[in-house]
């Protein structure tokens, strides 16, 4: 189960408004970036939030990968996004593929500020 988990909080995103507001736009980009990086999308579920008046609000979504997942959540009203890209490295090292998807999404979202962490998952500590 060893793998790389990339986590980011993105602020002051200066992308096209549809990227933060439109489920179809965000889903197609996420799936496309995964495929382009050589990962294997198994399915995607993206949910469109809306305001009481029916206008589009944020989007939350997940692309399930054979290698694990991409999860993204948008807050258009504050131009903020949370992003997770997690890949396991069971049959091959997918770290570079995860980094490619992560970077493509950050480039798409154009954040003014990024808080990010790289977490290696599934590594047991050495025993004495």
Question: How would you sum up this structure, described in words?
Answer:
By secondary structure, this protein is an alpha+beta fold. 27% of the residues lie in helices and 43% in strands. Strands 2-3-4-5-1-6 form a 6-stranded antiparallel sheet, covered by helices on one side. A hairpin with a 5-residue loop joins strand 2 and strand 3. The longest helix has 15 residues, at 95-109. The chain is globular and about 55 Å long. The mean pLDDT is 95.
Strand content: 35-45%
Rg over CA atoms: 15 Å
What would you call the shape? Answer: globular
Low-confidence sequence ranges: none
Q: In sequence order, what are the helices and strands, one letter per element?
A: EHHEEEEHE
As laid out across the biggest beta sheet, the strand order is: 2-3-4-5-1-6
Helix content: 25-40%
Global mean pLDDT: 95
Task: Count the DSSP helices.
Answer: 3
Structure summary:
The chain has about 130 residues and is of the alpha+beta class. The protein is about 25% helix and about 45% strand.
Question: Can you give keywords for this protein?
Answer:
128 residues; alpha+beta; 3 helices; 27% helix
Can you lay out the helices and strands and say which pair or pack?
Elements: E1 3-11, H1 17-21, H2 23-36, E2 41-50, E3 56-65, E4 68-75, E5 80-88, H3 95-109, E6 113-121
Antiparallel strand pairs: 1-5, 1-6, 2-3, 3-4, 4-5
Helix pairs in contact: 2-3
């Amino acid at each position: 189960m060893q793998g790389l988990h990339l986590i980011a909080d993105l602020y002051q995103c200066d992308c096209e408004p549809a990227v933060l507001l439109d489920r179809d736009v965000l889903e197609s980009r996420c799936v496309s970036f995964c495929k382009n990086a050589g990962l294997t999308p198994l399915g995607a579920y993206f949910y469109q939030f809306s305001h009481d008046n029916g206008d589009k609000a944020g989007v939350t979504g997940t692309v399930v990968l054979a290698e694990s997942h991409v999860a993204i959540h948008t807050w258009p009203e504050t131009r903020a996004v949370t992003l997770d890209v997690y890949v396991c490295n069971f049959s091959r090292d997918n770290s570079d593929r995860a980094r490619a998807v992560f970077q493509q999404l950050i480039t798409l979202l154009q954040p003014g500020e990024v808080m990010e962490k790289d977490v290696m998952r599934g590594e047991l500590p050495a025993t004495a």
